[in-house]
Predict the 3D structure of the following.
Amino acid sequence: MRDAIARALTWVLTTFLTPHRPGRHTADFLTAQPQPLPPAPVSPWSRPWTSPSKEEAAAFFRQQDAADQERRVKRERRRAAALAARGIDYPYTYDGAPFGPDAFAVTEASA
């Protein structure tokens, strides 16, 4: 019985008579904390290499295809202009042209 009384008395004395330490339930804890530092900039080398998403890759290839198509059209126009300067008919057609490539066919009567 004496042990139980001694333990209870020790618990009461340590709980109520020790100076109150600031903890998370006191206002002292909130005011005593320093301001958090701003997050450091993330280096691209700190994470593994990631590939582009499906949408980003599709947009890139569409843009590249449009540029290739434009280059092909310009090359064909230059070729047609160079051949026309020499007097050679080149079957250059385009969407909405009034005539097709068969209009350039060489026939026996025109040759």
The mean pLDDT is 79. Residues 55-111 form one domain. The helical segments are 2-16, 27-32, 54-85. The two ends are 131 Å apart (CA to CA).
